[in-house]
Amino acid sequence: xxHLEGIRRDFRLGEQTVHALAGIDLxxxxxxxxxxxxxxGSGKSTLLNVVALLDRPDAGSYAFxxxxxxxxxxxxxxxxxRENIGFVFQFFHLIPRLTAFQNVEVPxxxxxxPVAERRERxxxxxxxxxxxxxxxxxPNELSGGQRQRVAIARATIMRPKVLLADExxxxxxxxxxxxxxxxxxxxxxxxxxxLIVVTHDSAMGSRASxxxxxxxxRIDSDQxx
Amino acid sequence: MKAGDLIGFAGGAISAHRLRSGLTIxxxxxxxxxxxxxxxxxxxxxxFVMSExxxxxxxxxxxxxxxxxxxxxxxxxxxxxxxxxxDDAQSLRRxxxxxxxxxxxxxxxxxxFEGRQRRAMVFGVTHDMPVVWKMDVRSGxxxxxxxxxxxxxxxxxxxxxxxxxxxxxxxxxxxxxVGGERFQVLGVMESKGQMLGFDLDDTLFLPVAKxxxxxxxxxxxxxxxxxxxxxxxxxxVDTVKRRMMQRHGAEDVxxxxxxxxxxxxxxxxxxxxxxxxxxxxxxxxxxxxGILTIMTIAVTERTxxxxxxxAIGARRAHILGLFLAExxxxxxxxxxIGCIGAVGVVEAIxxxxxxxxxxxxxxxxxxxxxxxxxxxxxxGIAPALRAARMLPxxxxxxx
Lengths: 225, 399
Ligand SMILES: Nc1ncnc2c1ncn2[C@@H]1O[C@H](COP(=O)(O)OP(=O)(O)O)[C@@H](O)[C@H]1O
Ligand SMILES: [Mg+2]
Hints:
The structure holds two protein chains of two kinds. Chain A is an alpha/beta fold. Chain A has a domain at 2-93 and 161-224: 3-Layer(aba) Sandwich (Rossmann fold), CATH 3.40.50.300. Chain A is built from seven helices and ten strands. In chain A, a hairpin with a 2-residue loop joins strand 9 (210-215) and strand 10 (218-224). In chain A, helix 3 crosses helix 4, helix 3 runs parallel beside helix 5 (144-156) and helix 5 (144-156) runs parallel beside helix 6. In chain A, 44% of the residues are buried. By secondary structure, chain B is of the alpha+beta class. Chain B has two domains: 3-52 and 266-397, no CATH class; 82-249, no CATH class. Chain B has twelve helices and twelve strands. Chain B has a six-stranded mixed beta barrel. In chain B, strand 6 (175-178) and strand 7 form a beta hairpin. The longest helix of chain B is centred in the last third of the chain and has 44 residues, at 258-301. At the A-B interface, helix 2 and helix 3 of A face helix 1, helix 9, helix 10 and helix 12 of B. Residues 11, 13, 18, 20, 38, 40-46 of chain A line the site of adenosine-5'-diphosphate. Adenosine-5'-diphosphate binds next to strand 1, strand 2 and helix 1 of chain A.
């Protein structure tokens, strides 16, 4: 599903160059559950952004679902993101003026899905995440856990093949964090969605069937359970 | 993304900031309303003036002394101009296709009947004057036909003049004094009302030869020629011009057809309307700056939202479209409200005070709606482009 070869990503900060990713080779098969751990600044987020096609590597090649996307232009990347990749952020990134329903609906709107089908799919997604009663509330009327569940509904509404999550529980209390993790793990277990989770919480990371550890922009260990 | 969703999304963004959007829209509203109001006044004045002038008959050519290429006489040539005389009129009368000729001389005189006096406008004209001025005789008859150079001592009264001098009495056959000379009343005209401030009813009509004696002045103010409806105007203008050159030895008259006169007047008034419309347009500039400012702020505020939209698969064109739609929405809403308000005011005035020369200039209403939309579009381009050019990841990090 994901095939990375010699991926490098450098950031220039004044005189200094930070090698955020210093040569990553990685294969992730469809349906895998991978956690990425490592110390702060080791390149976890940068790697996830490259995988999410939000960031372009400075060197190396990337094949997504068998297609080399390294040279794709902006609009082509947007299309791959829209149709194949769901992303859950640490800070939720909901649009404040839109209701829960409308936030979940946005990807369908961008993809020109007909209104009736949109309503059906969004309601279904909200119901499965126990959010039906919150459908017409704005983000500021929701708890952190509810917000992250809305974000998950939005990330999965297009039925992506890959779900990426960068510290999805980083801003949540332990109870709602656990709930969120169970939801996305269930998407992997029940629907076969390829799941990649970045976390600094080793308890959470160890739940994954495959655990990557990054240090200084390199893969330090790659363990399977 | 569908057009309806685009509009819905942009509308949601506009209504999320009611006060700020409202003020921005108000800027455009004021500008558009002033354009519509001012052009409606211009259009009202144009229609008013045009209707005043089209009260007169068609198929008419006016000959006035002095050569000039547009309206009016030029002062430089006035000295070499020979006066237009009754004889000139008499001569023009014999040209082919000419149905009637009305030489006109105008002055003021004291009109007196049994001790009642009135200072009034006196016109020296001929039998065919009612055709040219589209006036009707109410009672009695108008001046008799015949040789222009001799006239009987008869007079025809304007409606108001009759009222003032005779009250309820029958004026026909009565003898009045004009400038010391005695005239017999032959008829009374129908009321014609005001024309550009002149009361056409407070008048007296005398045979032109008598008026020349009365004012002791030979020159006509104007000679009007009525020509056959099926005749070629240009050809008639040409024969009139040649006849006048023969008689005066030089081209010292100005010949204006009714069509020309109306055309020139109409275009002058149209330019006037356009001019004051443009004046109102200046206030639109303020509105445009308002939209530009608000959209720039909105793009900065919503950087994270832009990043999110891009992350979940919005293309640059989507972002561009969303912000442009928002700017166009602000402009168009301002335009619609401004037009409704201004048209309401204009129509209310036109209904309540029909005498006021204001008429909705619909073409300008449509044009200003379009203009408001274009202003929104133009003001939105720079901020929307900035939004569309943002890199998804960097935009996401803002917050
Ligand atoms: N946009 C950026 N500009 C400059 N340096 C960056 C940028 N993004 C990441 N870095 C640097 O790259 C390294 C890896 O960052 P990141 O992937 O965010 O680490 P992690 O998520 O593992 O904490 C860090 O040293 C960070 O400072
Ligand atoms: Mg990170």
